[in-house]
Amino acid sequence: MNVFAPLALSPQQDLTPAQQALVERIVTFCRGHLSGARGVFVVEGDAGTGKSLVMNTAFDRIQTIARGKDGQDALRNTKNLFVVNHPEMIKFYRRVAETLPCLRKADYARPTTFINSFRKTGKTADVVFVDEAHLLLTRADRYNHFAQDNHLQEILALARVVVLVFDPHQVLKFKSYWDRAALDGLLHGCDVEHVHLTDQFRMRAKADVTAWIHAFRECRLLPLPARQAFDFRIFDDAQTMYDAIRAHDRQYGLCRMLSTYDYPYTLDGADHFITEGRFHLRWDRSLPEERLPWAERPDTIDEVGSVYTVQGFDLNYAGVILGPSILWDDASQRIIIDTDRYEDRSAFAGRQGIAQPERIRREIMLNAINVLMTRPMHGLYLYASNPALRAKLAALRDHAKGPAS
Question: Locate the Schlafen group 3-like DNA/RNA helicase domain: which residues (predicted)?
Answer without folding.
Answer: 39-384
